[in-house]
Amino acid sequence: MSAPSWHTWNGRNPWQHRTTPLQSHVMQLGLIHHVGYVVADLDDEIPVYRDTLGMAVAVREVMPDQGVEAALLGAGPSYVELIAPLTDDTGVARFLAKKGPGMHHVAFAVADLQSTLRELADGGVEVIDSAPRRGLGGHMVAFLHPRSTGGVLTELVEDHSQYEHTRLEA
Ligand code: CO
Predict the structure, then answer these.
(1) Which of 17-38 are b and which e, b meaning 16 or more Cβ less than 10 Å from the residue's Cβ?
(2) Does residue 4 form part of some domain?
(3) What is the 100 CA–ligand 1 centroid distance (Å)?
(4) Residue 18 C-alpha to ligand 1 middle, in angstroms?
């Protein structure tokens, strides 16, 4: 039996779930795609999650336009996203300076990010990104303002990854 690819989890793709039209935008949210942790240095932190917790690195990428380097490490069908600032003038760098390393945001999978964003904005949710933009690993992402989401920075992800999901088998 070949190793399962990113696109299957127990025989199905957990992220590209089919949604039927629903009354509430809340019902369009899928599984938790990843939880974002801010760290000072990826080279220091990746071994902790990889070697101690057994989480495989699925993707690692420098994103100069956002001033960060980030990596996704598999945890079942979800990920932990480690984010390190490249410069001192980014939001991530300010977060690190003010609060130290730790949890930064939670990301939910959605089937159609553009329409979900529109529906949320129409419903009065404050969006940081009014349109989807490219995120780590080729995903399309957008952030919602914590003022609208109980004080927690919330990201929505339309999963477009092409890489193999290299997590360890449970
Ligand atoms: Co994220």
Answers:
(1) eeeeeeeebeebbbeebbbbbb
(2) no
(3) 18
(4) 22
Q: Is the pLDDT of residue 81 over 70?
A: yes
Output the CA 123–ligand 1 centroid distance in Å: 23
Tell me, yes or no, whether 68 lies in a domain: yes
Instruction: Tell me if 22 is assigned to some domain.
Output: no
pLDDT digits 0-9 by tens, 1-32:
343 344 455 556 565 554 444 444 444 677 88
Q: For residue 77, how far is its CA from the centre of ligand 1 (angstroms)?
A: 15
Asked whether residue 3 is assigned to any structural domain, the reply reads no
Distance 128 CA to ligand 1 centre (A): 13
CATH number at residue 145: 3.10.180.10
Q: Look at the pTM and tell me if it is higher than 0.90.
A: no
Whose structure tokens read 């419903």? 123
What token pair was written down for 105? 């945001």
- Domains in the chain: how many in total? 1
pLDDT band at 138 (very low <50, low <70, confident <90, very high): confident
The boundaries of the domain holding residue 85 are 28-158
